[in-house]
Amino acid sequence: MTNDVTYDDLARLWEARDPMPTGLVDKVLVSVAMEDLDAEYELMHLVERSRELVGTRRDNDETLTVVFSGSTCSLMMRVSPLEEGVRRVDGWVSPPRRVRVTMKQEDGEHVAESDSKGRFEIDRVPVGLTRAVITDLAAAEDDQNLFATPAFEL
Predict the structure, then answer these.
(1) I need a labelling partner for 153 at 20 to 30 A (CA). Which of 31, 80, 87, 137 fits?
(2) Is residue 128 part of a domain?
(3) Rounded to whole angstroms, what are the CA distances from 127 to 51, 81, 88, 97?
(4) Is residue 4 a part of any domain in this protein?
(5) Confidence (pLDDT) at 62
(6) pTM surpassing 0.85?
(7) pLDDT of residue 106
(8) How far is the C-alpha of 113 from the C-alpha of 120, rounded, in Å?
(9) Which domain holds residue 140?
(10) Which residues contact 118 (CB under 8 A, 6 or more apart)?
(11) What's the domain count of the chain?
C-alpha cells in the first residue's frame, strides 16, 4: 500500500493547520514599496516599544513609545491618538541636531524638521505601516548621513 501525498494535499494541510495571517501579503508589498532602493540608508534597529493607556479602555487610546537606534543616531517617538485612525508624533533625535524626518506610508509622506535640540512633531499621521527616514540637514548632500527605521505599525 502506497501513500500518495501530493503538494496540493500538503498545501491544504498547512492552510488548515497554520493559515497565513490576514493582511500579510499587503503588509509585505507596502514594506517593499516603501523601500527607496536608490539611496543607501543605515538601517536603525528597534530598541524599545511600549504602550500606555491614555485614560480609557479602548486599544486605540494608547500612547505608543518607540525607540530606534543606529551606530551614530537614535530616534525616540511618542505616538498619541487624536481621533479614530489618526495619530500625533512627537520625536527626538539624539545626538541633538537639525534633521528632516520623513514618515513614509503607502499613501504618502509626512515631513517635519527638527529644531537644534533634535525635537520634531508631526500633527496628523494616519495609522498604518510606517517607516521613518532621517536626513541630517547639515550634510543633506551626503548619502552616508541617511538613517531609516524598519517598517512599523502606528
Answers:
(1) 137
(2) yes
(3) 15, 9, 10, 27
(4) no
(5) 81
(6) no
(7) 86
(8) 6
(9) 23-153
(10) 92, 93, 94, 95, 96, 97, 99
(11) 1
Q: How far apart are CA 140 and CA 83, in angstroms?
A: 34
* CA dist., res. 81 & res. 67, Å (int): 18
User: Mean pLDDT in runs of 10 for the chain (154 residues)?
Assistant: 78 86 75 57 74 55 87 91 93 94 92 95 94 83 71 87
Q: Whole-angstrom Cα distance, residue 117 to residue 31? A: 30
pLDDT of residue 21: 83
Question: What are the φ/ψ torsions at residue 49 (nearest 5 degrees)?
Answer: -145, 120
The CA radius of gyration of the chain, in Å to the nearest whole number, is: 20
Q: Is residue 131 part of a domain?
A: yes
SS3 track for 56-123: CCCHHHEEEEEEEECCCCEEEEEEEEEECCEEEEEEEEECCCCEEEEEEECCEEEEEECCCCCEEEEE
pLDDT value, residue 1? 52
Q: Is residue 76 part of a domain?
A: yes
Q: Which residue has the cell 525616540?
A: 76
Q: Cell 504602550 appears where?
A: 51
pLDDT for 32 = 62
Closest C-alpha among 96, 94, 97, 92 to residue 119: 92
